[in-house]
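quick one, 160 residues, struct below
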Amino acid sequence: MSFTTPDQTTADRMPGCAFCSIAAGDIPALRFYQDEHAVAFMDRLPMTVGHCLVIPRRHITDVWDLTDDDAAQVMHAVRRVADLVRERLAPAGVNLLNNNGAAADQTQFHFHVHVIPRYGRDRLLHPWERIFAPAGEIESAYRMLSAADSQPRATATPEN
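---
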């Protein structure tokens, strides 16, 4: 899978938008999936091991700004990323989360879907409860998701 960025017109970007800059490859992110329409990268404040984001390449503010084509393209990428997460991190389940508007805890105003692996009795943390992951945890999950020859772990079993 190539990680070169296709040409992105200035009209596709919002000046000052961090996610537009990540999509264009202008700022670093642990990107492990991309296609013509979307990019996936690791969340810097993960709720669980392997928590990642899927964003459209072009700037779309929120769900109300999505066209039907945008929605289909982003969900196609979300499905591919969820498959990678299941295959390589072997969670017991996965949450897909999308926040729209400040009142719904949207903090980056570029449409994105959180793909959050669930391992059993973990709990999702509110943004104000999240802390930086232990050293190396994000990079370890990134290596597992991005390695072409990565082998999946044994399937996780939820705790009772």
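The chain is about 25% helix and 15% strand.
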